[in-house]
Amino acid sequence: MSFRRLFGMGGRGGDQEPPEIDTQITTLNPMPGRAVEGEVILKGGGQGLKIDFLNLDVVAKAYDYDGSVGEDELTNLSTGRYEFTVAPGAEERVPFKGTLPWECPVTELRGQALGVDMSLTTRLEWESESPVRDVDFLHIAAPPVFEAVLDVFGEEGYLVEGSRLVDEYIPDVEARRGLHQIFFLGSPARGADRFGELEVVFLQNVVGVLVFVRRAARSTFSWSEKPPARSFAVAHHEAGEADLGARVRKALEQLALIDG
Q1: What is the pLDDT of residues 156-188, one digit of tens each?
Q2: Which superkingdom does the taxonomy of this entry point to (predicted)?
Q3: Exposed, middle or buried, 119 (CB in 10 Å: 0-12/13-18/19+)?
């Protein structure tokens, strides 16, 4: 992330250097359910500025039931400072921190980009001018329990090809946010006993994940209109410790019976 001139190309004095902003995340590999920290760096430029309001939001772009795309605000990161002044030529560093919700989507799996749009949006108001909005792409790493489950699907021949966010609650399960993330898993090996593509969804909380698996239907967005799903639970402490193969194979066998 680099400094951006968000306050116009020139100051009120004509040729004065305009103020600048840079939002930086200092936490390495942020994950759902864990703390995230960083700082907003403000440069006063030639005129300085008086900040009236400063706010940081974690925002996701997600599909609606009709295939349209909208923004979903997941959480706010606290700065503890809202009104302050940056003098001309000075630099002000404003730390922020917060905790990503357990339901927070992930943008990458072991460095593989998943195609999910997550951002950290910094909004500020200054000296009665028009509000300024700075948007930075946010990298969220998959937690170990996701990796463990998807590794087992990989052993069964189903590999992660991408992901999608859908702004909808999963029916009949308890969730704090109406947003779920679909992982699309493809199978290079074709056969009568295999699915061409699967959808895997993780509903995560402090204890672990409830894993849903179903035959993929990319053109359908509403949960109730998709093919039936089967589910199994995995605790966080089981990642890398328990043999999850039996649970995955049982879910695949149950799906085959549904489609049979």
Answers
A1: 999 999 999 999 989 888 888 889 999 999 987
A2: Bacteria
A3: middle
Specify whether the CB–CB gap between 71 and 123 falls below 8 A: no
Query: Under a CB-based contact definition with an 8 Å cutoff, are residues 81 and 96 in contact?
Result: no
Q: How far is CA 98 from the centre of its chain?
A: 15
Whether 87 contacts 50, CB under 8 Å: no
Contact yes or no for 25/37 (Cβ under 8 A): yes
Give the Cα separation of 231 and 220 in Å (integer): 20
Find, among 183, 138, 137, 146, the residue nearest to 163 by Cα.
183
Q: Locate the DSSP E strands across 112-207.
A: 112-113, 118-126, 132-137, 159-166, 180-186, 197-204
How many CB atoms are located within 10 Å of the residue 154 CB?
12
Q: What is the pTM of this model?
A: 0.89
- Report the C-alpha gap between 48 and 16 in whole angstroms: 10
